[in-house]
Amino acid sequence: MDELEFDDVLDDWFIESLKTYRDLHVYQLEHPTQVIEWTSEKTVCVAGCSLKKNEILELRLPLRLFAEENKGLCAERDFKVVHGGFTDGPVRCLRHIPGTRCLVTNDGLSAELQLWGLGGDDSNVIRRTGSIEGSRSVLECGSRIAVRDSSRPQVLHGAQSSGVQLTELSSGQMLYKLDTDAADPLSSLQFVSDSVFLASCCNGNIYVADTRTSAAPQLYPPPACSGESVFWWTDASSGPDLSGCKVIRLSSSGQAMVSDLRSLEGAVSQAHLDIQACHHGLDVVRVSWAPVLDNCIALSGFSGAVHIYDTSVWTTELQEAQLLFEHRGHVVSLQSEDAVPVFITSHVWHPDRPRTLLSAASDGSVHVWDWVDQSGTRAEVNKLKGSVHPTLTCGAV
């Protein structure tokens, strides 16, 4: 694509964005990130994923994003680095410990966890404060991490199902270990209550366990799926109690199944998603429930776009899923003629704003965007206020 053609594509997308976004802010990091983690309502942590030395940053989102009225009067349009530091290697998994200024990371190469202090008002430096040894696995692969709000900070971690353990950060004491001999590589770990968690495996198996008991976990195998060497990703919705918790399982062949947590062997609804073959690593694929937008999921990692689906229109019969929204700004902004195709490396929903997401891509770009539902099939959660034109800004960190 020559420069003139690129300008035409960019112009077309910009005009389209005036109708499809309430806000869109575009930024550039020095190196790509595979992690985006909320540390507060207005700040996130990101970290580089290259094998060499990387930055680890706490960024404040543009304050203009949060101005409900008179956005034009808000001068803060860019991300701001509030704390920063360096890692000796890649960061492939990162979690913020609720109620603290602490981070836990993993490099994706071993089971060891790294502990970090985010700093405070008296320091803008993120410093490494310690480490936690994980259970060694036959296959040297990275640990998955889950955290929960607790008076005694704890972290759930493991690379394989047989190595999942709960560790107290202050003492390094192991408080719980998942009772299974199976050494299935994990795709994710996730707390669904103060004590109940899901250990989701790459082969589609899901273990449901309770850290308050030493009883064996419940094991739910994956649904039947066509194709060889199928890989699975899982996410559970958040809620006030387990009765309303839904679990989505997505296969690398495009099969998506929604289940009630209390009955994971069956499907409440299902659909087939039109996804591309993943040629750049399965660790960058993300499927996530919207925290405050009922029945919506976001999917990324198969291409340069973030896809949003409304699962409320799915049925028990397998069907082709229809897109609710597609964010393709990362692809549109790729200018180099001989560039490697860009792909999404991570995305995350805002915990309180229904349609606000952050996404990162392999070219180092980071977007924060608030999309408009134009489907006509859903009731608007938030009515647009003020001007119909979105805020569109570009910057660099």
Describe the 3D structure:
The strands form 7 sheets. Strands 26-27-28-1-29 form a 5-stranded mixed β-sheet. It has a 4-stranded antiparallel β-sheet with strand order 2-3-4-5, with no helix packed on it. A 4-stranded antiparallel β-sheet has the order 6-7-8-9, with no helix packed on it. 6% of the residues lie in helices and 39% in strands. It is globular. The two termini are 28 Å apart. The relative contact order is 0.15. By secondary structure, it is mainly beta.
Structural class: mainly beta
Mean pLDDT: 87
Shape: globular
Strand order, main sheet: write it out: 26-27-28-1-29
Extended strand count: 29
Helix amount, in percent?
A: under 10%
Alpha carbon gyration radius: 21 Å
Q: Treating each run of at least 4 consecutive H or I residues as one helix, how many helices?
A: 2
Question: What low-confidence regions span 5 or more consecutive residues with pLDDT below 50?
Answer: 377-389
Distance between the termini: 28 Å
Strand content: 35-45%
The biggest beta sheet is recorded as:
5 strands, mixed
Quick synopsis:
The protein is mainly beta.
What's the arrangement of secondary structure elements?
Elements: H1 3-20, E1 21-28, E2 33-38, E3 43-48, E4 54-60, E5 80-87, E6 93-96, E7 102-106, E8 113-117, E9 127-132, E10 144-147, E11 154-158, E12 165-168, E13 174-177, E14 186-191, E15 196-201, E16 206-210, E17 218-220, E18 232-236, E19 246-251, E20 255-260, E21 269-272, E22 286-289, E23 296-300, E24 306-310, E25 323-327, H2 329-332, E26 344-349, E27 356-361, E28 365-371, E29 391-394
Parallel strand pairs: 1-29
Antiparallel strand pairs: 1-28, 2-3, 3-4, 4-5, 6-7, 7-8, 8-9, 10-11, 11-12, 12-13, 14-15, 15-16, 16-17, 18-19, 19-20, 20-21, 22-23, 23-24, 24-25, 26-27, 27-28
